[in-house]
Write a sequence for this structure.
C-alpha cells in the first residue's frame, strides 16, 4: 500500500491544488456524514451542503484572485456551509468540533506518512522541508496569502504569513471562529518532524486564527 499519497518522498514535489483540495473536501464531507449518522443526525444534510457549497462559491467568486485561490476558496467555504447547517442542530462548540475532526482527520495519516517518508529519505531533511514550504507558498497558497521572510539561509527559514486568505474568507462569511480549524490541518505534517532524527526543529507559536498578528512558520537547524 502506498502511504505517500502526495508523492512527497520523490524529491520533486509540486503541489496540485485541484487534486489536493478535492481530496480535502471529499474526505471532509464523507467523514462528516459518518459522524452525523453515528450522532443520530440524518446524513441527508450532506447533499444539501454540497449544493449550498456550489452556490456559496459563486457568491464569493470575486475572491478567487488566482488558480490557487479557486481551490482554497472551495475548501474554506466547505467548512462554512457545514457550520451553518450544524449550528442550529448541535450548537457552536460541538459543530466546530465535528468540523475540525472532519477537516483534519481524513488525510492525517497520508500527510504525516508522506512527510515522514520525504524527511527520512532526504539527504538533507532541512533543505527538503524548506523546498516543500516554498513550493506550497507559490503553488498551493498563491496570491491570496501574504508572506514575509525574515530569515532564509542555510540554517534558518522563517516565513511569516501576514495575510491569510482562509481567515479573510471566513470573516467575510461570518465564520471567523472556524479559522483555527484550517490552522489545525498543519498539525498533520508538523507531527512528522522529529528534531533529533531530522536535524531541525519547527516552531509556530501562534496563528492569525488564534489571535496573532501573523502566522510564524520557523524552521531551524539544530
Amino acid at each position: 500500500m502506498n502511504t505517500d499519497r502526495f508523492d512527497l518522498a520523490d524529491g520533486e514535489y509540486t503541489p496540485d491544488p485541484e487534486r489536493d483540495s478535492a481530496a480535502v473536501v471529499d474526505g471532509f464531507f464523507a467523514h462528516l456524514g459518518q459522524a452525523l449518522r453515528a450522532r443520530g443526525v440524518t446524513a441527508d444534510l450532506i447533499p444539501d451542503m454540497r449544493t449550498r457549497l456550489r452556490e456559496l462559491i459563486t457568491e464569493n467568486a470575486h475572491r478567487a484572485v488566482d488558480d490557487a485561490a479557486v481551490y482554497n476558496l472551495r475548501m474554506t467555504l466547505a467548512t462554512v456551509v457545514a457550520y451553518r447547517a450544524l449550528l442550529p442542530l448541535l450548537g457552536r462548540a460541538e459543530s466546530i468540533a465535528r468540523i475540525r475532526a472532519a477537516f483534519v482527520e481524513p488525510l492525517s495519516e497520508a500527510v504525516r506518512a508522506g512527510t515522514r517518508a520525504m524527511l527520512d529519505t532526504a539527504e538533507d531533511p532541512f533543505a527538503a522541508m524548506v523546498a516543500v514550504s516554498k513550493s506550497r507558498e507559490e503553488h498551493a497558497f498563491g496570491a491570496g496569502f501574504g508572506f514575509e521572510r525574515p530569515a532564509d539561509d542555510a540554517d534558518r527559514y522563517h516565513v511569516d504569513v501576514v495575510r491569510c486568505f482562509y481567515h479573510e474568507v471566513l470573516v467575510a462569511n461570518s465564520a471567523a471562529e472556524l479559522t483555527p480549524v484550517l490552522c489545525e490541518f498543519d498539525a498533520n505534517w508538523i507531527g512528522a518532524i522529529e528534531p533529533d532524527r531530522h536535524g531541525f526543529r519547527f516552531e509556530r507559536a501562534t496563528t492569525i486564527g488564534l489571535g496573532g498578528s501573523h502566522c510564524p512558520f520557523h524552521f531551524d537547524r539544530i
